[in-house]
Amino acid sequence: MTLTSKKFPTDHHGWAELLPRRQANPPLQGAHREPWVVVGAGFTGLACARRLATLHPQQNILLLDARCVGQGASGRNSGFVVATSQFPGRLDKSRLENYRRINRINQAGLELLSAQVEHHAIDCQWRREGFIHTAVDRRALQEYENFLHYLDALQVEHETRDKAVLHEQLGTSLYQAGIQIADGALVQPAALVCGLADNLPSNVRLFEQSPVLSIEDGKPLTLHLANAEVKADKLILATNYEAPALGFLRPYIVGSTLAGSFTRKLTGAELASLGSLTEWGAISLHSGGATLRLTRDHRISIRNTAEYHGSVLLSDKELAQRQATHRAAFDKRFPQLANVPFEYAWSGVEGISRNGTNFFGRQRDSIYLAGGYNGSGVSRGTAFGTAIADYASGETSQTVSDCLASAPGSMMPPRPLLDIAAFFTVRSRFKGVGLDR
Ligand SMILES: Cc1cc2nc3c(=O)[nH]c(=O)nc-3n(C[C@H](O)[C@H](O)[C@H](O)COP(=O)(O)OP(=O)(O)OC[C@H]3O[C@@H](n4cnc5c(N)ncnc54)[C@H](O)[C@@H]3O)c2cc1C
């Protein structure tokens, strides 16, 4: 099947819709000869291009994205910049080193983002005060116990919250228990990813709405675009779940489509009916359960659907249908805000693998790839992107070693069975989600 520019659909929904309009960089045209090309300008590609620019200050780095920055998963997520991952199930002591490895990667990404936000004064509601993992039903309460054992074993700073404290802080009596993790950040994701793109080093040239349609092997490689051709010595793919369209990771990664809604801005009286925290994030202890935010600009966002939808965004009609699910979950949590309408809804597609692993390394001669973070790619994608630049440049680091230690992906069957496997892979993320949805 030939890849065309039309295979990169987008819409204007999501966190970018809440921002002042940004002027996108023009598409790439003509013939080019480049030492380095990075494809994909989400957190992974932006971090990669930035690191390559530092490692090779005398060389140009070409960064291409099929869409406008902020329209990929990096601008459409829930904005939890994770330092400590939560793994479902009982603590498996034999996997402690693996948990530490993943958290070192998360932490590295969090530090990199934190430094960039500060250095470039990126206005993105960055708030590095951690967030709360919440439990509503019996199964989530079991995960609460599991998570506590894990945090104790890893010596991660945290505090427990009981129902009364959560009610006092968040203004909902739904949550039965919670765990506040000390580190981690909340962010307006589209503002962050656009801020990173607008503050790249001078030897990075970013072109948006520039889909790479095919890659021809050879020395140099040749990248074909609709109105351009690029000869490149080294290529880094940061294309997330769309890598298979270019012939990479085909049986290993699919897109899961998630959707959420934002209220309009709450009034002073409505805010007063909530809790004492003026800004917060709550993430379900059920894998795939609801994520909620009270944002700095006084909106509540709720994201609680995830499905296999052919790795594409939802249509407006489908979004309106999912909003009924968002509304029911919102009303269950905040009956005092039953009259507050949703003002926006959005969907986004995240890359997931069958066994929950991430992808890092050389694909074939001069082509490298990092991606697929199973809903946890803001900090991790930043670390993977930086590390893949190091790795492709022959550098070593703790993060490179940690990324290289990612488990190999589990294969998915070919089409049409792929669709069925993808359906069940996504559904398994929601397994057992009860009242936390
Ligand atoms: C609704 C939702 C909620 C989420 N919540 C969180 C969260 O709270 N915390 C968290 O850590 N993670 C979360 N995630 C996951 C996170 O957003 C992703 O893991 C992360 O953004 C991946 O970054 P990336 O740069 O690898 O990929 P992307 O952001 O998907 O970027 C890949 C880019 O490659 C471009 N591209 C693809 N193919 C081509 C091509 N052929 N030519 C040119 N360009 C191409 C795309 O246009 C895209 O911009 C969520 C995801 C979704 C969808």
Short structural description:
With 437 residues, this protein is of the alpha/beta class. Helix content is 30%, strand content 25%.
What can you tell me about this protein's structure?
The chain is 30% helix and 25% strand. With 437 residues, the chain is an alpha/beta fold. The two termini are 38 Å apart. Strands 1, 2, 8, 9, 10, 11, 17 and 18 form an 8-stranded mixed β-sheet that branches. An 8-stranded mixed β-sheet has the order 5-6-4-13-14-15-12-16. It contains 10 helices and 18 strands. The protein is globular, with a radius of gyration of 21 Å. The mean pLDDT is 95. α1 runs parallel beside α8 and α2 crosses α8. It has 2 domains: 221 residues, FAD/NAD(P)-binding domain (3-Layer(bba) Sandwich); 177 residues, D-Amino Acid Oxidase, subunit A, domain 2 (D-Amino Acid Oxidase, Chain A, domain 2, 2-Layer Sandwich), CATH 3.30.9.10. The structure holds flavin-adenine dinucleotide.
Structural class from helices and strands? alpha/beta
CATH class of the largest domain: Alpha Beta
Strand and helix order = EHEEHEHEHEEHEEEEEHEEEHEEEHHH
The pLDDT mean sits at 95
Q: At the third CATH level, what is the topology name of the largest domain?
A: FAD/NAD(P)-binding domain
Ends distance = 38 Å
